[in-house]
Design brief:
The structure is a single chain. The chain has six helices and seven strands, in the order αβββααααββαββ. By secondary structure, the chain is α+β, with helices and mostly antiparallel strands. It has one domain. α4 runs antiparallel to α5. The protein starts with a helix and ends with a strand.
Length: 183
Amino acid sequence: MTTFLKAGLSVMAAALLAACGNSKTAAPDKPDSSGQQSAPVTQAAKPAGLQLKDDQLNAVYLQYQQLSAALINGDEAAARIAANAIEAGAKGISGAEKLVSTAAGIMAAPHLDAQRTAYATLSNDLITLVKKSGISSGSLYIDYCPMALNDKGGYWLSNDSGIKNPYFGDKMLTCGEVKETIQ
């Protein structure tokens, strides 16, 4: 029974994340049963040529990209939505318990600075999982900003070698450097 339940949850999580395969926003086309329009669904863009070996982790990474973009843009609401998707997708990944709890922390964070602080932990956990899983194709960059988190420094993953800093957004968009490339 437990195996069946776990398999069912994994399939549901994978289906939820698989539905997020492009960068378009689905337009609400019909009112729901209460007569109200449903909210648009944000879907993650798949980076060209990048594929992690673990499909579930790949789906989580796609949502991580959305989270990074939201923090770069200073959009707390979009960060919460992406963190919610990360939490749901990571529940089916072995060894991702910290990722799940940190994503929940981002959703509950009272302001953007708290989201960015939790993002540092989430990024470190995701980097560990990605290194363990490996990449089938493409490259990921581990970026670092020494000024993040009150000069403690913070890492993040990117599929672009150019720096776009999620810790400072437009205040210091290009602060940081590529520390490592995962291939």
